[in-house]
Amino acid sequence: MLNPDDRLRDFPALANMAYLNTAAESIPPKCVHEAIEQYCRDKNDGMRGRKAHFAALEDCREIAAQMTGLAVDEVSFCSCSSEAYNLLAGALDMGADDEVVITDLDFPAGATPWLNAAAPPVVKLWQAKDGALLAEDLVPLLGERTRLVQVSLVSFYNGHRLDWRPFIEVVRANAPRALVSVDITQAFGRVELDCDDADCLVSSTHKWTLGIHGGCVVGIPKRHADVLTTNAGGWYHLQNAFESDRFERAVSKNGAASYSVGMPNFVALYALNASLRYLNDVGVANIAAYADPLVHQLEAGLRELGQAPMAAQREGNASGILAILHDDTTAIHEAMEAAEVHVMHHAGRLRMALHGYNTGADVEKFLEVLRGALGR
Q1: Same domain, yes or no: 219 and 322
Q2: Of 152, 170, 234, 267, which one's alpha carbon is 20 to 30 angstroms from that of 363?
Q3: What separation, in Å, do the N-terminal and C-terminal C-alpha atoms of the chain show?
Q4: How many angstroms separate the CA atoms of 373 and 331, rounded?
Q5: What are the pLDDT digits (tens) for 290-329?
Q6: How far apart (Å, rounded) are the C-alpha atoms in residues 173 and 164?
């Protein structure tokens, strides 16, 4: 992943394109393709294949726990981050006397369940300044009624990486009842996680983790397992799903296990188990050390072209994402696609994302096409 030979071997699809769009969709390594093929072989064993399916699930739980710094029984899986956050909302069961803080840099999955609740809590918005969330601006939003503070470790929108330590200290000091939920989707597998004292971790599986759709990692540390146990119906997360009293009461498993409400999406977990072990073998610290300079190279090139990133990268606290605003991102995007340079554009925003499989040549090709599109 970090040298030309490994890149060609593990990511042959990258041979003829500059792929700077991992924040939307990753390119899985060959080991993920092989894991999916293994799932198909096990599935062809019918019911006998379930032994292999559940073994793969437990292997995936083990490596996910290792990479998030949690215990194995503090990690579980559901189908996507939207499902995870709706289950979290059900667990907290908030009402009009409660308050939730969200940010204007969050993905909708983490921000909207509180707005759509049957009895919505008061929702307060922590707004970014110059593309960054500042801890001092959070203080007035916190208080005795704050039940949840929801943030993203890295913003999908502009690549801002939350300065975790000042943030968590402000929350603990000013909102003693508040739980902290953090979406690590745009960080997990790309940056070293520093949010080990969060109360809930959520990550999709088809981005920086190099997995596929249909999976989500949920981490619930034991210290708040009782409070964060979901109240959803289902079966796989229930202790008494097939017991004699199953039509009289539903008893959820505790904490993280309660977020796996139905049959696991085994193929996504086969894929995730392979991709996380691949990333772990490479080393997330090595990925950051390799890819961060590429991000700084890209940022410097953007500034030379008069395109200021929406969120500046800070030394020692970088992410893999840069984004710019432009009046005609559609034309720029079309020029990129024609040159086999893959980025994301939406509503006047162009977003670039650099992982461990990217190269300096990818950055230069992007800047060359952008220069031409801007007429420079």
Answers
A1: no
A2: 152
A3: 33
A4: 8
A5: 999 999 999 999 999 999 999 988 877 889 999 999 988 8
A6: 14
On whether residue 252 sits in a domain, the answer given is: yes
What is the phi/psi pair of residue 238, to 5°? -95, 145
pLDDT tens for each residue of 233-280? 999 999 898 999 999 999 999 999 999 999 999 999 999 999 999 999
H or E element in which residue 359 lies:
none
Is 27 a member of any domain? no
**Residue carrying the six token digits 């008893």:** 251
Residue ending a domain, among 280, 308, 341, is 280
Three-class SS state of 274: helix
Q: CA of 287: how far to CAs of 58, 292, 343, 370, in Å?
A: 26, 8, 20, 26
Domain residues for the domain of 102 are 32-280
Contact 174, 126 (CB under 8 A): no
Q: How many domains are contained in the chain?
A: 2
With 0-12 / 13-18 / 19 or more C-beta atoms within 10 angstroms meaning exposed / middle / buried, residue 292 is buried
- In whole angstroms, what separates CA 337 from the centre of its chain? 25
Q: Which residue has the tokens 């040549």?
A: 361
41 and 12 in one domain?
Answer: no
| pTM attached to this predicted model | 0.95
The token pair that represents 199 in the structure block: 């109360």
pLDDT of residue 127: 98
Question: Residue 122 forms beta bridges with which residues?
Answer: 99
